[in-house]
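Please check the following.

. . .
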Amino acid sequence: MAEGRKTAVRRSGTGIAARLRDYRKDSYFDYSLLFIVLFLLMFGLVMIYSASAYDAAVTMDNERYFLEHQGQAAVLGIGAMFVVSWIPYHFWKRFAVIGYIVAFILVALVLSPLGVEANGARRWLNLGISVQPAEIAKLAMILFLAQLICKMGRKVKTNKGFLVILGAAGLMSFAVWQFTDNLSSAIIIAGIAVLMLFVASPDYKRFVLMALAVAAVAALAVFLITRASSTEGMGFRGERILAWLDPEAYASGKGFQTLQALYAIGSGGIFGKGLGQSMQKLGYLPEQQNDMIFSIICEELGLFGAFAVIMVFVLLIWRFMVIANNAPDLFGALLVVGVMGHIAIQVILNIAVVTNTIPNTGISLPFISYGGTSVLFLMIEMGLVMSVARGIKLKDV
């Protein structure tokens, strides 16, 4: 009898091991997504060095200053991405509410003595290292909304459920806007929520009405600002709108950065001046390694290089859509949609700002612009997407 039990145990153990082997063999890993992300990251490091070497040599006495700091964040981000990708994505469900609360507190702490001001904006925290809470809030919002939508189920399609989701996102967006004075990040967070809500409850009528309302408010704001007799009391955002409409009239003020970016884009031509040959980065274009790095890409690599970068982002969005469509459950699909919304909205806004399609607002180009917190949390988001992709089971046809 004892021998029979031992045999049964051995068979059982063999069965478990076999199932684990089958799971690993049948699990999906998106190598295309990995290649695209690493390419963008490496390309970003090259462009950061090209764009910042002169400024870093003059101000920091080290031409590799920005490259070294971004490289450290990139290495940490790659490690975090692989760690997160191996953790089943459902594990993070239990931390969704806590993450939302912690992110909200960190955003509020910007107003405390821990807050750090740079370039006239108070958007960072000194926690031993410099951290931008708005980037944490984006990731926390994706996790929280994915968990909340799944928990609400069919109630999301009701008016009450719809407003609850928008309210949760609106509270975080309002906090980011008011506490850190970062309107662009607040818009991104709101955009992420709208996209995730659209996937969960594709009621076209609601979203069309929302879009029309936002467009009407924006148009009214622009009309009132242009009709004002003076710029007194309208704040720097009002001046940015005027500079957007006529940058040459504000060439010495709010229109300066926009004009320099347009000069860089225009001078690059079709194929550019060559990597490292930009003139605008030599003290003319502010934030050339950060918000305005796309204009340096256009100047050095031309419209051909700029189009190639845009196409790489399009491929990235396509991989997100493939993974979301094949995700094992709604929670996984919503996580991927949230990350897709984050990157797509941020890319569109950054390029629109650089080309003066919309008023100037501080927003970075994902994976490419300088910013340690941004690249670290973007890579964590990529890890989440890869974790969802690992849950996809391959089937023999």
